[in-house]
Design brief:
By secondary structure, the chain is mainly α. It is built from two helices and two strands, in the order H-E-E-H.
């Protein structure tokens, strides 16, 4: 049971880190396919976390008993 809590804690920390800093510097010298010339790349999972949060805000919350 302790291992499950540790893994959940690590996942929570990763999600909070990605929310706080979703991009990192690209190592390219100029234009590349990864950063498309901006010099910034998204961290692993940043787009997925952002997509989930936006969908959660768009979805209407239903009250109890309402269908």
């Amino acid at each position: 049971m302790d291992h499950v809590l540790i893994v959940l804690g690590i996942i929570a920390v990763l999600i909070l880190f990605v929310l706080a800093s979703p991009t990192k510097a690209c190592r390219c010298a100029g234009r590349c396919a990864r950063c498309k010339g901006t010099g910034r790349r998204f961290r692993f999972g940043a787009r997925l976390v952002r997509r989930v949060i936006v969908q959660a805000h768009k979805r209407p919350w239903r009250t109890r008993g309402e269908r």
